[in-house]
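Obj.: predict assembly geometry.
Materials: sequence records (below).
Method: joint structure prediction, all chains together.
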Amino acid sequence: MPIEAAEWQDACRLGPRPGFTPQISVLVGMMHYARLTTREAVEGLSVQELDALPPGFSNSIGMLLAHMAATDRLYQAASFEGRSCFEADDYAPYVGAMTFGWKGEPVRGRTLDDLLAELDATRAETLRQLAEHDDDWLTTLLTAPGFDDMNQHWAWFHVMEDELSHRGQIRILRKALALQTPPVS
Amino acid sequence: MPIEAAEWQDACRLGPRPGFTPQISVLVGMMHYARLTTREAVEGLSVQELDALPPGFSNSIGMLLAHMAATDRLYQAASFEGRSCFEADDYAPYVGAMTFGWKGEPVRGRTLDDLLAELDATRAETLRQLAEHDDDWLTTLLTAPGFDDMNQHWAWFHVMEDELSHRGQIRILRKALALQTPPVS
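Observations (raw structure tokens):
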């Protein structure tokens, strides 16, 4: 479904959000804007388009979307639970998505609705947890092994900046796909 | 020059920075981290690599780097001076970079040092100006025509998120280039 003009306008004004402390509000606003642009970038894609790999590209749009949700989950464990879940049983279903198929199975055959629903569900949990923390917590270092050099503010910024980076890739992947299959006249 | 481990570690802890108010500090920290990753993504590229366009890609890495600096300049005028400079004489040298050659000349033949020096100089001016503003200002709407729906916080977030998006593209462009020209054994 296209994103409404009012939703864009609202997203272009970062500031306090109900239920969040001031710095977390801005972070959540940035994450929200990033997600709107991801949704816009993938709107209307078929399973075939989500799985396509034009020459020169090694990850499909579907793989990139699943990777975004897997990243959110990885950082939920590291940030909120102080654990590195990469090798944990509960994370096993996401390792293929996280590693783009270098470990586990690469993502393939999933519908856009399915991929977006997973992104929404994962993000809802992130937001629920962020609402329970405050700006002082943002400045604390993570305790999970392998994540203990970063603070909480950077950790969630990173989840967002990784999404933005892959959204940029999705935009050119989609352009490359359009070049391969000109619309029927 | 490779980025030192200590510089990465410092960049992974967002928080107060000397000379900036609290929210501007975090924004500047994010912009700084984004720039480190851009520098890392382009390290050591030749003019030929900066100008290369593998099949399926329409903007070269050099074009993307010049676009980042042009975006910073466009938002300096909009944010700090309240003017839309796109058609102004002082912005004419950057229109080709900003529009990826749709208007003006596409960027070509520039060295990495030259492109990075422009990014540094432009960003230094942005930081100088941000240091003269405060967190209340961040929440105000821009007044420049065409930019007046966004607030200052979003404007500078957007400059950063656009860089992150293009950095993601640079990463896959560089991978695609490596596939085209296998290293000599």
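Conclusions so far: The mean pLDDT of chain B is 95.
To do: check interface contacts against the pulldown list.
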